């Protein structure tokens, strides 16, 4: 396989043309078929990537590590608390040195107002592709897997009602990167996106402006509402998930008065019943079960969360295979 996007950074899908994303999706589909049929995919033999994690991960770390092994290469997991970064080493020095040792650098850094800048700082000085494993603003690996899953389940994405809905959670103050990525990406595929959240949980104005532009240019729509039921009503896809109030409040505190006032924003069977009969429930995971969603919904017939999570493997392999190649 030719790495069609050799050396291209994967920081936000907004910087990838739709035709390029379509190529990534086609390769992801092929990877999935080959994985299912035990057909080898040795496209990155003897290639190495560094996976830098400032935060915890289950899906992202393991889809990247096992994905690169399945492509014939090797991924080195780096807990950044054990790197010289924790003594202040710069993004530039880290990027220059790691890129001289391998063929790709992937990084998760979700610290508010820091993560994306850190990735951009590395990209400026890296001679190999920088892959965003989630930052404060974007989670492109998740967005690509979500899009693949919606296409698999619904076929055409044109004018599907897809509702990205804030949900109550107590586990940690989660980044805005998943809903922001979805709000930017889905209208590019003609979806009618409803973004629903309690007052105070806004996404940044520049992102909403960009999402509206994406919708106008591609025949989709973006509707913002603070009415949870309106978002569930007649939906084809619902994505109820918590995100933190980072735009209005940069405190790290998980539980505050605004959060507890919105405990009612939960995906219940009653809410699912408002959607179309074949409405699908999605979540990037991990879910805060019984807070964000009732167990009977996430474990029920409308849920496609495991298919969505599995697709993280195939899409991660596509991104690596298409961007990391011969130096
Ligand atoms: N969805 C997702 O990114 O999962 P992890 O945090 O487990 O990587």
Structure description:
- By secondary structure, the chain is of the alpha/beta class.
- The protein folds into two domains: 13-139 and 309-324, Rossmann fold, CATH 3.40.50.1370; 142-307, Aspartate/ornithine carbamoyltransferase (Rossmann fold), CATH 3.40.50.
- It is 39% helix and 14% strand.
- The chain has twelve helices and nine strands.
- The chain has helices at residues 18-36, 59-70, 91-101, 115-125, 140-154, 177-185, 205-218, 228-232, 257-260, 269-272, 295-298, 305-323, and strands spanning 48-53, 74-79, 104-109, 130-135, 161-166, 192-196, 221-225, 237-241, 280-281.
- It has a five-stranded parallel beta sheet with strand order 7-6-5-8-9. Strands 2-1-3-4 form a four-stranded parallel beta sheet, sandwiched between helices.
- The mean pLDDT is 97.
- The structure holds phosphoric acid mono(formamide)ester (CP).
In brief, what are we looking at here?
Helices cover 39% and strands 14% of the residues.
Order of helices and strands: HEHEHEHEHEHEHEHEHHEHH
**Separation, N- and C-terminal Cα atoms:** 15 Å
The major β-sheet equals: 5 strands, parallel
| CATH topology tier name of the largest domain | Rossmann fold
Question: How many whole angstroms does the radius of gyration measure?
Answer: 19 Å
Q: Strand portion, in percent? A: 5-15%
Outline: globular
Approximate helicity band = 25-40%
What small molecules does this complex bind?
A: phosphoric acid mono(formamide)ester
Report the mean per-residue pLDDT as an integer: 97
Strand order across the largest sheet: 7-6-5-8-9
Low-confidence stretches: none
Question: What is the number of independent domains?
Answer: 2
The top level CATH class name of the largest domain: Alpha Beta
Number of strands: 9
Task: Determine the number of helices (DSSP H or I, runs of at least 4 residues).
Answer: 12
CATH 4th-level superfamily of the largest domain: Aspartate/ornithine carbamoyltransferase
CATH architecture term of the largest domain:
3-Layer(aba) Sandwich
Supply the helix-strand structural class.
alpha/beta
């Amino acid at each position: 396989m030719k790495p069609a996007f050799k050396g291209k950074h994967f920081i936000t899908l907004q910087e990838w043309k739709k035709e390029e994303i379509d190529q990534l999706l086609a390769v992801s589909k092929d990877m999935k078929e080959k994985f299912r049929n035990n057909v080898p995919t040795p496209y990155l033999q003897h290639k190495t990537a560094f996976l830098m994690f400032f935060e915890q991960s289950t899906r992202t770390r393991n889809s990247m590590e096992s994905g690169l092994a399945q492509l014939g290469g090797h991924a080195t997991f780096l807990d950044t608390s054990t790197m010289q970064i924790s003594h202040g080493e710069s993004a530039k020095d880290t990027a220059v040195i790691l890129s001289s040792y391998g063929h790709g650098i992937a990084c998760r850094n979700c610290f508010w107002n820091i993560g994306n800048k850190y990735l951009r700082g590395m990209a400026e000085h890296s001679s190999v592709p920088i892959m965003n494993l989630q930052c404060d603003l974007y989670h492109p690996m998740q967005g690509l897997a979500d899009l693949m899953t919606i296409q698999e389940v619904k076929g055409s994405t044109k004018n599907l009602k897809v509702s990205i809905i804030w949900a109550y959670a107590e586990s940690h103050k989660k980044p805005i990167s998943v809903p922001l990525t979805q709000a930017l990406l889905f209208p590019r595929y003609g979806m009618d996106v409803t973004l629903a959240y309690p007052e105070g949980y806004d996404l940044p104005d520049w992102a909403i402006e960009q999402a509206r532009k994406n919708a106008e240019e591609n025949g989709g729509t973006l509707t913002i509402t603070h009415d949870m039921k309106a978002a569930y009503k007649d939906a084809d896809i619902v994505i109820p998930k918590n995100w933190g109030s980072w735009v209005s409040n940069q405190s790290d505190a998980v539980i505050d008065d605004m959060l507890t006032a919105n405990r009612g924003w939960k995906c219940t069977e009653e809410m699912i019943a408002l959607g179309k009969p074949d409405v699908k429930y999605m979540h990037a995971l991990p879910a805060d079960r019984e807070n964000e969603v009732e167990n009977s919904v996430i474990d029920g017939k409308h849920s496609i969360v495991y298919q969505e999570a599995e697709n993280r493997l195939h899409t991660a392999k596509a991104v690596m295979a298409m961007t990391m190649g011969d130096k």
